[in-house]
TrEMBL record:
Region (Disordered) location: 163-204, 241-292
Source organism of the structure: Oncorhynchus mykiss (Rainbow trout)
Any single GO BP term: nucleosome assembly
Coiled coil (residue ranges): 46-80
Basic and acidic residues bias (residue ranges): 174-186
Protein name: SET nuclear proto-oncogene b
Length: 292
């Protein structure tokens, strides 16, 4: 295999060659010229390599773009196939009282936004739906369906995320028609509910403030949580066990264990007393004086 020698090695070889032929060694000036030639050749090869890498990278980018288009088509296809199952699931969920409020309370990120009155209002929430637009990249909408309630007049509250004319993320939502004195977004403070110790938020911002916040549609955390985490499988959060109940059960188990330990200790004490009695028993005199 052809092997490229270093400039330094070639110089040594040339010196040895000319010495062997009784010729004059290559001067340092000549060596610099040789070195310059090799450097120019190396830089040229590097530049050519960079140009080839750029060409290959363009091909990779083209394939990535093509893959994105194919993935989008597949996602659109299966999004349509999932719709009948989402509908069936919504019908079944409607048979379970307080399904959605329980799901939200059990979700760590959503529960951080829920205060006592928010939770009360969400008891009237009967259905949640997430609709992705046909061109999935262009956005989605979340619909919240409510029964008649003492807080607002709306039957449906929606928030939509989409790309505006300039291609930037934006959002819009339903204007909440609050009943007199019931605007939860204007409360100054809120008493933490019974789950407050679990949420570690004494005065959480109202969940309903989210409908009026359009400051950063491209990074709407709550919208993404509902669409990507809760909506695909809300049952997993509905079935999360209540931590208070688990702690209560744990306390009962501890009490039972302590009770068993007490019984064992009492048993050990009784055995000890019996041993003491046996040890303290008077030995008959005949043992020492067998003739008596």
């Amino acid at each position: 295999m052809y092997r490229t020698e270093s400039v330094f090695t070639l110089f040594i070889y040339s010196q040895q060659y000319f010495l062997h032929r009784n010729a004059h060694p290559i001067s340092s000036l000549s060596f610099n010229k040789i070195k310059t030639v090799f450097n120019l050749s190396s830089e040229k090869e590097q530049q050519e390599a960079i140009e080839h890498i750029d060409e290959v990278q363009n091909e990779i980018d083209r394939l990535n773009e093509q893959a994105s288009e194919e993935i989008l088509k597949v996602e659109q296809k299966y999004n349509k196939l999932r719709q009948p199952f989402f509908q069936k699931r919504s019908e079944l969920i409607a048979k379970i009282p307080n399904f959605w409020v329980t799901t939200f309370v059990n979700h760590p990120q959503v529960s951080a936004l829920l205060g006592e009155e928010d939770e009360e209002a969400l008891h009237y929430l009967t259905r949640v739906e997430v609709t992705e637009f046909e061109d999935i990249k262009s956005g989605y909408r979340i619909d919240f369906y409510f029964d008649e309630n003492p807080y607002f007049e709306n039957k449906i509250l929606s928030k939509e995320f989409h790309l505006n004319e300039s291609g930037d993320p934006s959002s819009k939502s339903t204007e909440i028609k609050w009943k007199a004195g019931k605007d939860l977004t204007k409360r100054a403070s809120q008493t933490p509910n019974k789950a407050g110790k679990k949420r570690q938020h004494e005065e959480p911002e109202s969940f309903f403030t989210w409908f009026t916040d359009h400051s950063d549609a491209g990074a709407d955390e709550l919208g993404e949580v509902v669409k990507d985490d809760i909506w695909p499988n809300p049952l997993q959060y509905y079935l999360v066990p209540d931590m208070d109940d688990e702690e209560g059960e744990g306390d009962d188990d501890d009490d039972d264990e302590e009770g068993l330990e007490d019984i064992d200790e009492e048993g050990d004490e009784d055995e000890g007393e019996e041993d003491d009695e046996e040890d303290g028993e008077v030995t008959p005199i005949k043992h020492f004086f067998p003739l008596l």
